[in-house]
Amino acid sequence: MIREFPSRLVLLGSDVTNSLSPIFQRAALEAAGISMSYDALNVALGALDRVTEEIRRDRIAGNVTRPHKVAFHDACDVLTPIARKVGAVNTFWIEQGLLHGDNTDVEGFAYAAQDLIGDNVSGAEVLVLGAGGAAAAVLTAVEHWSGSKATVVSRSIAKSRALAAKFPGVAAAGTDASEAAARASMIVNATPAGQHDDQFPLALDAVPRSAAVIDLVYRRGETAWVRSLRARGNVARDGMAMLLEQGALSFTRWFGKEPDREAMRRSVL
Fold first, then answer.
1. Which CATH superfamily is domain 9-103+243-268 in?
2. Is the pTM of this model over 0.85?
């Protein structure tokens, strides 16, 4: 538990103007009777060092999203084991003057996956689209699923190989998403595709009808890819469940108590 409350809460990213995090975190704060702001800050890549200094000085806590999760990980004084494993931070706070970093995306994804398909995650064949911090969080969760394997496909085979190498015996890099999808029981989109438009990260006809699909991108009304997949019979959902759960876990890191998850959920519906 954190010894002292933060002065304020922020979300750091390069394009967070339309993020839902301030909405549900403010709802959680109100439900808990905590008078504190939660603000989304658009931070350019070159400005992250300056913002990190302000965070330390002013005892700020919060969340980190694209594209700063890896760079913020490197700036932390103290990392949780899971943040160190992932190599990316999405949750931070100040304790005894030190910048602490954690990654609640892992538990958030695990929750969303099990909520979607139940406890049948053992032995899964997972296709992960993307090789960034979100993909690393997915693989960290998959690593704990007995007998499960993952294929990582991204636009950069070098990045795919580097990420897969962090999970030996579990992950391998692939070059053809359609080929990997053909044998997948679960497909996870960990790229930004579809965040601001109706772009599909993978063509519909490449997705087996038997595969469960989780799109880590979230939009009100779901992404076009998820809606189209569900219409053709796939079990599919977007990243809203993961977003809310990782946010609830962040709240617990900041304040040492559980938030009102139902209040958070209602706020974004």
1. Leucine Dehydrogenase, chain A, domain 1 (3.40.50.10860)
2. yes
